[in-house]
Give the backbone structure.
Amino acid sequence: MPVFISYSHEDKEFVEQLAFQLVAHRANVWLDKWELSVGDSIINKIQDAIKTASALLIILSRSSVESEWCKKELTSGLLRELEERRVVVLPIVIDDCEIPLFLRDKLYADFRTNKDEAFVMVLQSIAKVTSDSLGRLTSPEFFVDWATDWGFHKNGQFFLRIILVEQGEDQPITCLSEIMIIANEEATKKYFETSKKHNDRFARLEVIESLSSSIEKGLEIRMRLDDNHEKRSEYKISDGDNSYLVIVSSRRLGEDTGKDVLLSIDAQILGMRDTLRGILQKG
C-alpha cells in the first residue's frame, strides 16, 4: 500500500522534491500529479487512495491549513486512526502555521529547521506503518511481536520463517515461537510467478494466506507449554499441487509459575495475516 501525500498545490515544489526523495528510498508514494489521468474522477480516485493508503503524510503550511480540500483529507485520515486504532496520519510542518487542533498532540517532522533530520523522521515513521517483516499485535491482555525472514534451501525450495514473541500484561513469562513454512517444488514455482507478476512481498503474503486458509478451515496450531523445554509439532498443508511443510516450535521463558500455558499460534498467524493484508493490499 502506498503512502498518500496530502498537500496544497501552492506547496507543490516542496512536495515533489519530498516525493522523489521518498521514492529514491524505495517508499511507495501516492501523489495526485503522478496518479491522476485526464478523465479520471478526482474525488473517487482520492477517496480510494486514502482508504487503501498505509499512511497519510499531511503537509502543514499556511496554505494547506486554510484549504478545505486538505481539511477533508485530514479528517478522513483521523477517522481511519479511530477505526483501525493505529497511527495513520503523519504530520509534516514546512512553514509557520497554525497546527490543526487534532494534530497538536502528535509529534511532527519539522522541515523549518533541520531538513535532513526531519526527512529521517519521515522515513522512520513510514517504515513503522509499512514494514511487512516486523510488527506487533496488541490486545488488552497481551501483545505479540513478530518478525519474518525467508530464503531458499540448498535444493531450491523456498522457506518463510516467522518468529513470534508473546508477552502478557503484568505476566512473569514470555512465550517464544518459530514457524518454518517450507514450500514444495510447485509452491516454490508459484512463489516465483507471484514475485514476477507483482513483487516478492505479495508472494510471501500468499504463503501466509495458504497457512491462514488451512487454519480457517479447521487446522489448530496450539502448543501446551508446561515447562521450559521446547515443544515441536509438524503439519502438512496443501492447495492443489502446492504444498507446505509447517514446523512449529515453542518454549516459555521467565519465572516458573507452576501453571501450563496454552499458546494459540493459529490466532497469532491470522492476526499477522490481517496486518499484512492491510499493508500490502493491492490498490
Summary: The chain is about 40% helix and 30% strand.
